[in-house]
Amino acid sequence: MGHSQLDALSIARQAEDKAARFYTEAAEKCSDPRGKNLFLQLAEFERTHSKKLDQLIDSLSVSEGYVEYDGTELVRAEIETPAGVVAESGDVLDIISQAIEAERNAKETYEKLAQETDDPLGKDMFNKLAQEEAQHERLLNDQFYSLSNLGYWVWGE
Description:
72% of the residues lie in helices and 0% in strands. By secondary structure, it is an all-alpha fold. It has one domain (3-67, 84-149): Up-down Bundle (Ferritin), CATH 1.20.1260.10. Helix 1 (3-29) packs antiparallel against helix 2 (33-61) and helix 1 (3-29) packs antiparallel against helix 3. The longest helix has 30 residues, at 120-149. The radius of gyration is 17 Å and the shape is elongated. The termini are far apart. The model has no long low-confidence stretch (mean pLDDT 89).
């Protein structure tokens, strides 16, 4: 286990913490309950990633090797949209744009870590993390498109 990989994991964990805070703040700025729900779930998701990376860093630091990661699922909530919900502000579209970029960067980080890891358990974990970030990126792209062109969230539909 190279020192540089521990450094990369530490940076990835900090990025997950930052993403969790970002999504929590985004939920507060959201007027639509569907957007709020999505952002709060994404915040929880990133906290789960952060905890898992903590566990991995601890394990690798004492030479116990990689840890297993089963993956995490988003729950597509059925959310009634209250009548007369105001359209989201341009701020929310900016937030989604930033989130898309952050998810893409996270996906690329985990893909790189997967390539640099010979351990099958480590490779599996990093690939799962990369797939989850890619799923978030696609989901956020869908929201961005729908909000930009149709004026509503497609999450929770």
